[in-house]
Amino acid sequence: MDSLNVIGAGKLGRTLARAWHQAGTLAIGGVLCREPAHAAEAVAFIGAGTAAATLMSLPAARWWLIATPDDAIAGTAAQLAESGLIRQGDVVFHASGVLDAAALRAVAVAGASTGSLHPALSFAEPARALQQLPGTPCAIEGAAAAELEALARALGGQPFRLAPGGKACYHAATVFASNYLVTLTALAAEAAMAAGLTGPQALALLAPLMRQTLDNALALGPERALTGPIARGDVATVASHLAALPPTLQPAYRALGHATVALAADRLPTDAAARLDALLAGTAPSV
């Protein structure tokens, strides 16, 4: 069985290593973290491997996962290349959402096959993430894509390949879908509280509506799922929102409104779309 060394065994690194260990896919070799205590904790969670004190104390391995913070990946790859530990044909990969295999250029020059494997999953709690890995979409790219696809399937993941240069846009998509959804929830709750609701009341109001809307958008597609005043061309209602909302919420409402006008463009009369855009831009008088 091929072995895997893990450099940077935080929440993501230790979760993936344990999943491959439990699946019998890879033997875990060395585990290296900035703090020796963290490496020992990771080994205990994984249930296999040896905590390494330094890069040079890592054993030989066919697979190398660099799961450090994004801004440390290229530097770690350079140190690994300079160490002489990489053998021709070893596979070095990272799990960054935004960086592609170019961050591993140094080890590629040293003879490694490189790539990236990014599960589209939150790793906030490793034990929970481990249970959620089956069925998770996994973005794959780089020269080692075919081998990384096999590793993703061993996790129970659903691998898909990204176009060259597509990693940053892929990651931005996940930020829209995950991080900005949380921000949107906070903005909607703030608007509800401006109407007199408490925080818990606001979230209780929004929860069923948000779940139903998301289900509709995913099942029907965004264009068909879109409802509301902009989809109807209701300029007066949008104007009343702008007049009532606290100033802190207006920039987000205006930006999202412009995007919604574009989404609804095929169903809106040209004059309605133009009036809405002008109103949202602040270049037309309120109704």
Question: Can you give a write-up of this model?
Answer:
- The structure is a single chain.
- 54% of the residues lie in helices and 13% in strands.
- The model has no long low-confidence stretch (mean pLDDT 95).
- The protein is built from 13 helices and 8 strands.
- 32% of the residues are buried.
- It folds into 2 domains: 162 residues, Rossmann fold; 113 residues.
- An 8-stranded mixed β-sheet has the order 3-2-1-4-5-6-7-8, sandwiched between helices.
- It starts with a strand and ends in a 6-residue tail after the last helix.
- By secondary structure, it is α/β, with parallel strands linked by helices.
From the 3D structure, determine the CATH topology of the largest domain: Rossmann fold
Task: Output the strand order for the largest sheet.
Answer: 3-2-1-4-5-6-7-8
Strand fraction band?
Answer: 5-15%
Supply the CATH class of the largest domain: Alpha Beta
For the termini, the CA-CA separation is 71 Å
**What's the architecture of the largest domain, going by CATH?**
3-Layer(aba) Sandwich
The main sheet comes to: 8 strands, mixed
Number of strands: 8
What integer is the average pLDDT? 95
Helix percent band: 40-55%
What's the alpha carbon Rg, rounded to whole Å? 24 Å
* Low-confidence spans: none
Categorize the overall geometry.
Answer: elongated
How many domains? The number is 2
For CATH, the homologous superfamily of the largest domain is named as NAD(P)-binding Rossmann-like Domain
Helix-strand makeup class: alpha/beta
Number of helices: 13
Element-level helix/strand string: EHEHEEHEHEHEHEHHHHHHH
